[in-house]
Structures are given as C-alpha cells and as structure tokens.
Design goal:
The complex is a heterodimer of chains A (168) and B (173).
Chain A lengths: L16 H15 L18 E3 L1 H17 L6 H4 L3 H11 L5 H17 L4 H10 L4 H7 L11 H12 L4
Chain B lengths: L1 E12 L8 H13 L9 E8 L7 E2 L6 E12 L6 E10 L2 E6 L2 E6 L7 E4 L4 E4 L5 E2 L4 E11 L4 E6 L6 E2 L4
Parallel strand pairs in B: 7-12
Antiparallel strand pairs in B: 1-4, 2-4, 3-4, 5-6, 5-11, 6-7, 8-9, 9-10, 11-12, 11-13
The chains are: A mainly alpha (168), B mainly beta (173).
Chain lengths: 168, 173
C-alpha cells in the first residue's frame, strides 16, 4: 500500500540495494492502479507534465546531439548516456510526421481541435504516434476513446483525415 | 510514451569549480548524473531538456567542502503504461515468444499472446502466420499492447500481447 506522503516514487541512487528494491516494490504497487485504457496515468497525469509525440521527442533528441557536437566533445553522447541511442533510433523509426514544420502544425491545429473535442493529451499523442486508419482502429488501439459519449466515429474520422495531411 | 516532467536532483560541486563557469559545470554534471538513468515512477530519463532558472544557491557541506545545489530541471522521460499500445522492434524470437524493444523499454510477448494462427519456425527463428502474411522476426516492427509492468530498482520490465485486432507487424522503419 503506497504511503500517502510518498515523494512520487523517486528511488534515491544512494540507497542500499534492499531499500531500493522495496522502494521499487512500493512503486510497483502504486502503479497497479494505473491503466492507459482508462486514462489512469498516476503521477504523469498532472498539469506540470507534458505528453509528447514521438515526433517531438525526436526533435529534442536531435537538438541535444547537435548541441553536443557543437561543444566539440571528443566522445559521442552514447558513451555517457546509454539510453540516448535506443531512444533516438526508436524515434527516428516511428516518427510518422513529415517534418519539423508539420510537427508544429500538428501541435497547434490538430492538438487544439482534439482538445476542444474533449480528448486527453495522452489520447492526442497516441493518435499521432499510432496513426490509425479509421475510427474503428483508433478505438481499438486507444481504448479510452471508447468511453460512452467521448467522441463520435464521424468526428474521429474527420480528425484522422486531418492528421494524414501531416503524415510522411 | 514520452513525457516532459519536472524533476529535482541535489548536485555536489567541488570547490575547484566555484568559478565563472559554474552554471555550465552544474548543467554538465547534472546531465552526466541523470541522463540515461531510471527515475522510478517517472520512468527512464532520456535527456535533460533544461535547468529551471533561477539556479538556486549552493549550500556548503562543512564536512566535504563541496557545495550542494538542489537543482530543478525539465527532463524528457520514457514511461510506459499498462494498457498502452505502442510500436516496438523485435530483438529476439524464441519458441516461447519474442522480446521487443521500445526505446529503453524491453517487452516480452509470450507465445500464448500471439494470434492463434501463428506457429514457430525454429529454422528461421520467427513466428509465422498460417497464411504466411505475418512474420515476426528479428528487426520487425510490431505494434503491441502492454499488459503488465514491473518496476524494479533500476528498470521497468514489461509483458505485452499482439493477440487483438490491429496489433502485430506494422510499417515503420
């Protein structure tokens, strides 16, 4: 059972193994309630947290690599950050948006329209990341869209059609 | 799913770095310490996006002479959720199922959670559908649903399924 005064599940790196493991166990227990299908996103569902599309993460990672090179380091980022290359490769591979301009346009117009329609930021990012072909597929892979009265199939189809204009 | 979150970390700086380049040194040290690490409920810290300003004053630790800075920063994290559908890359295929990677996350899909019309081809080390149309082999792009997540001390491990409609091999890469 999670301690109500828990500090959001941070696992201090200075803790000895057994204590870190039990912190992890309580983090697992607390996450048992989480379920993307019901938009129960735990600590990630807060005003202070932004949900990013793969395309946006790709842009951030590319900029980080460019900055690193500009500083003239002799070593590559991979050496100090074992997660950089896996994340970068993943984003490059599954980024379905044409280019940077399109990414900005998606954030401004598509995101705005989807939010007006009552979609959660997580659902918007999922639509962009997964690019479902139609409303039926969208509701299958983003189950929270199936919620009663959430979004009409026709409206969803028109949203998806708008999204394809930004796709590669 | 990728998120931008605000995180905190106490950075210890040695006296020899108390100079005009302190801010840069702080940023460098923060990046070295947290990038590529695991942040529990916030997931994997992929990179530091920026430090929150103003940078707080450091407090001297009298025993070591180091200054401790309670830094706040914005991080790009990867945090999966149970029930989330995401694309992944197949890494290893066995008769028990397959392992796939989604960025920093490793997901295991048991053969029980493959479509019933798929069989294991030991020769080719892949799972193949009866009609031959679907092939799950190393380096294939596979869309899967995360069924279970286990947060351990230094990582998250996940199990998934490709059994439902619209899951399985997809275009990408």
């Amino acid at each position: 059972m999670a301690n109500p005064t828990d500090d959001h599940g941070e696992i201090p790196s200075s803790l000895p193994g057994a204590v870190a493991a039990s912190a992890a166990a309580s983090a697992t227990a607390a996450t048992r309630d989480e379920d993307a299908a019901c938009l129960r996103l735990g600590v990630m569902d807060s005003d202070k947290v932004e949900v990013l599309m793969i395309a946006e993460a790709a842009a951030l990672l590319a900029k980080r690599e460019a900055d690193h090179q500009k500083l003239g380091h002799t070593y590559s980022l991979d050496v100090v950050n074992g997660l950089f290359r896996p994340a970068m490769n993943y984003c490059t591979r599954f980024d379905r948006i044409q280019n940077k301009t399109a990414v900005l346009a998606v954030r401004e117009s598509f995101d705005a329209r989807a939010s007006e329609l009552g979609l959660h930021a997580f659902e918007v990012a999922q639509l962009v990341n997964l690019m479902p072909a139609d409303a039926e597929e969208a509701k299958a892979v983003i189950p929270s869209l199936r919620e009663e009265g959430k979004i009409d199939n026709d409206v969803l189809n028109s949203l998806l059609m708008e999204l394809t204009t930004f796709a590669k | 799913m990728f998120f931008l979150v605000d995180l905190e970390r106490r950075i210890h700086m040695p006296p020899r770095q108390f100079n005009a380049k302190l801010t840069d040194s702080l940023t460098q040290r923060l990046m070295q310490e947290v990038e590529g690490s695991f942040a529990g409920r916030h997931g994997f810290v992929v990179m530091v996006v920026h430090l929150h300003e103003p940078i707080p004053h450091g407090e001297l630790d009298h025993t070591t002479g180091f200054a401790v800075f309670p830094l706040k920063y914005k991080a790009l994290v990867f945090r999966p959720f149970k029930g989330e559908v995401l694309d992944s890359v197949v890494d290893k295929v066995t008769q028990h199922g397959f392992f796939a990677d989604a960025g920093p996350l490793k997901i295991f899909v048991s053969h029980h959670l493959l479509p019933p019309d798929m069989g294991y081809d030991a020769q080719a080390e892949c799972w193949r559908s009866v009609d031959g149309n679907d092939l799950i082999a190393k380096d294939a792009s596979v869309r899967l649903r995360i069924l279970g997540l286990k947060i351990e001390a230094t990582e998250i491990s996940a199990t998934g399924s490709v059994r439902d409609d619209y899951l399985g091999t997809v275009d990408g890469g």
